[in-house]
Write a structure and sequence with these properties.
With 219 residues, the chain is mainly α. Among the domains are: 76 residues, Irregular (MYOD Basic-Helix-Loop-Helix Domain, subunit B), CATH 4.10.280.10; 65 residues, no CATH class.
Length: 219
């Protein structure tokens, strides 16, 4: 009986010890789980900060690019550099820079069209001068082959004046009818001009008119 009572007392002590240990273990906080939650929250905040910072940098780059574009326009467009008395010394707004740029581009388009028209006119002049040159060379060659023919009748100056008057009259119609935009249009216009303005009757009327004009000048 004494041994039985001693074993029962030891079992009771061990049971109470186990009960106290389990209670203590349950009351201690789980530090591993808290560390995991803390690191996860820190990572989330760090990701948001990096994303916000990247967005801010991208937005700043976009604004810098726009500002540089407007600065380049002000440097390129001459009217943006001129003093605007209605604004004074204030910096030009973006709306004014854009409007002045549009006006300048429209001005350049008008100038380009004007220059193209001038080039077209000069091409017609060159074409007419080439025709006059060929005709004059033929006249000179014919005169060289027969130097005494008609020498006592008409001087070279009068011949040239007649020729010049005829060519001037032909060039007026040539300049009004010929288009030199392309080779096809030039070819078509030349043939139609020859058919319409170089008929024998038309040339006869031109020559008679030039002779009457020179006759009135000489006499």
């Amino acid at each position: 009986p004494a041994l039985f009572m001693e074993n029962a007392r030891k079992g009771s002590i061990v049971s109470r010890a186990n009960s106290i240990g389990s209670t203590s273990a349950s009351s201690v906080p789980n530090t591993d789980d808290e560390d995991s939650d803390y690191h996860q929250e820190t990572y989330k905040e760090s990701y948001k900060d990096r994303r916000r910072r990247a967005h801010t940098q991208a937005e700043q780059k976009r604004r810098d690019a726009i500002k540089k574009g407007y600065d380049d326009l002000q440097a390129i467009v001459p009217t943006c550099e001129q003093q605007d008395f209605s604004i004074g010394s204030q910096k030009l707004s973006k709306a004014i820079v854009l409007q002045k740029t549009i006006d300048y581009i429209q001005f350049l388009h008008k100038e380009k069209k004007k220059q193209e028209e001038e080039v077209s006119t000069l091409r017609k002049d060159v074409m007419a001068l080439k025709i006059m040159k060929v005709n004059y060379e033929q006249i000179v060659k014919a005169h060289q082959d027969n130097p005494n023919e008609g020498k006592d009748q008409v001087s070279d100056e009068v011949k040239f004046n007649v020729f010049q008057g005829i060519m001037d009259s032909l060039f007026q119609s040539f300049n009004a009818s010929i288009s030199v935009t392309s080779f096809q249009e030039l070819s078509a216009c030349v043939f139609s001009w020859i058919e319409e303005h170089c008929k024998p009757q038309t040339l006869r009327d031109i020559v008679i008119g030039v002779l009457h004009q020179l006759k009135s000048q000489l006499y």
